[in-house]
Amino acid sequence: MSSTLLETTRASHEEVERLERLIVKEFQNDPTSSKDRLLQSHRVRNMIDTIVSTSHKLVDIYEDKDQARKDEIAALGGQTASGTNVFSAFYDRLKEIREYHRRHPAARVVDVDEQYEALLKEEPVIEFTGEEAHGKYLDLHELYNQYINAKFGMPRNDKKESEDSHIEYSTYLNLFSQPQKIDRKLKLTMQYREYTQNLLEYLVYFFQRTEPLQDLDKIFSKVCIWRHLLKLGGYFDFFMILTRSLQSHTSLTFYCLKQVVTEFEEQWKDGKVPGWGGGQENGPVPAQDTSIDLDYYTTVEELMQVGLEKLKEALASLGLKTGGTLQQRAERLFLTKHTPLEKLEKKHFAKGSRLPVQNGAAALKENINSKEVALMEAKVIKLCTLLSETIERTKENVEKKQALTYEEMESERQEEEMQAESESDDDDQQIYNPLKLPMGWDGKPIPYWLYKLHGLGQEFKCEICGNYSYWGRRAYERHFKEFRHQHGMRCLNIPNTKNFNEITSIEEAKELWKRIQARQGINKWRPDLEEEYEDKEGNIYNKKTFTDLQRQGLI
Q1: What DSSP line would sit under 487-511, residue for residue?
Q2: Partner of 383 for a Cys bridge, out of 203, 257, 303, 411, CB 3.0 to 4.6 A?
Q3: How far is the C-alpha of 207 from the C-alpha of 210, rounded, in Å?
């Protein structure tokens, strides 16, 4: 039944919406421990990956490169080669549905909600070593061994003792995030390049396991959106690139580090990269990279916008002739985009430049290698900044272990495991409350003596509140000022004053209100009897008598 393309599209949209609601529901649960928080983050990460892969399939369907979606819509509308016949298409579809139910009479409806709810209960498998302790600490022992067995990892204070003495692991934790302190000559070796690459891969992998939801989209939007839009044009193309790039954790981390690449490019041009800039004691000043990346230019006119000087420097670095007009220089440099230097005609090269071409290519290759190593160092420094708290915890843990014996470390590890198991058991265990005592602030039943002290076993019913029950004298006295009781008094047209405290019966409240009204009627001031008037002779009358005498003409 779901074999049609339109049904597949509908089911994919439904899956995306269900996963979005599950993510919201997942974030509404507050994790009680760091392990639960880590599992929650990975569950959400898996849901996001599923959404991205499903969205990628939807993009391919909407692109409709094989025109299958268009043909299916046309078939539903009854469009055939002979003409348009809506009724025949309708009855063909009806026949197909009936045939499906005839072949599958025992087909049952599957509750999809239960299947998706199971995603909230699964525990993703996260691989951590024993030293990492579920992401609390770093495990750099392999990289430490690689560091101390290399030339760049030997102490530089005393050359005679450098072969026998090595730095300790605790000292290495302070040094691995500071690659700018290593001599530049040692950085150009293949051994250092492999070490830096291994260090970067471990930090990226650790960061993916411990922080799968760490601000990657925000960094991506700041750096990469405008580049893709300017290069390709259009929001639809950018959405496709974003969808395809988020399919794996590796690409996510790559885009997270894209901002580091942008900052590094600016610092490299200015010669301000730590450990690689000019005027340092680590080595000579690196040659300025005067090459132009021709991949960004499609025509000679675009290349002419670079300028005379830049074109001249780029041609000189390749050993080509630097003379001519702006257009001639751009055309000469543009030839190298599709044609290797070895296959260019001799007329394009300067005199005696065959050997310099080879030297320039070697220097350019060395500069590119240096740039790649420096870029890896910049990424390592950025990741160390993001993992600064974890690095500090690792240092404290290593120092703590150095002061403990093996038996003490084992006992401490067992205590931590038992504590974690007891916390999980407390969360899963049902609360034993046979007396049905009220819950306290900690989510557990209050003590029985406190229950008896406040008289919480006494029940007070209020008829005015709709026979609502109040447990304990304190709650009963407090309810006379609460909204439920005030609303009941308003429905009876009786003011909720202090006179009606302790009265819960409707009849008693009405009788009391009548007595109050009667008492107010006796003491009420009556103007016809109590208001005084005086005639010309000084006689005093009340209002009624004065009015009667005046009507009779006696006054």
Answers
A1: HHHHHTT----GGGTT---HHHHHH
A2: 203
A3: 5
